[in-house]
Amino acid sequence: MKRRTSHLSRALLVAANHQASGxxxxxxxxxxxxxxxxxxxxxxxxxxxxxxxxxxILDYTLCGAAGIENLGMFMxxxxxxxxxxxxxxxxxxxxxxxxxxxxxxxxxxxxxxxxSELAVHVKEACKRxxxxxxxxxxxxxxxx
Length: 144
Description:
With 144 residues, this protein is of the alpha/beta class. The chain is built from five helices and five strands, in the order βαβαβαβαβα.
């Protein structure tokens, strides 16, 4: 029997990894969200335009050699909607972490990561996104 998912928050996983659909299913189970996986930034932007998710999980390696610049352009497309972005990164420098903060990345996590930790961040991001919509504020409420 298929469970009803219309009440669940939507997560978008953007990763070129062949295991993305499996990760998406695990995340859906652990975070109690609907999860959709796409393989490119362009596909992600199309999904956001059609049916905005409550949170986006992005594999930073998809941003390519011009990572920060490409991430900035992707974030610009999201800022009108203020969708929380969780970034999965390889080991990065302190400068890059500062850039992520300046761009408004909700959370960055170094790969490898624990799925349970990602699920916690996804749940928190969905709650904050819902609270933002209820208050009508364009900014995400501060963490506790």
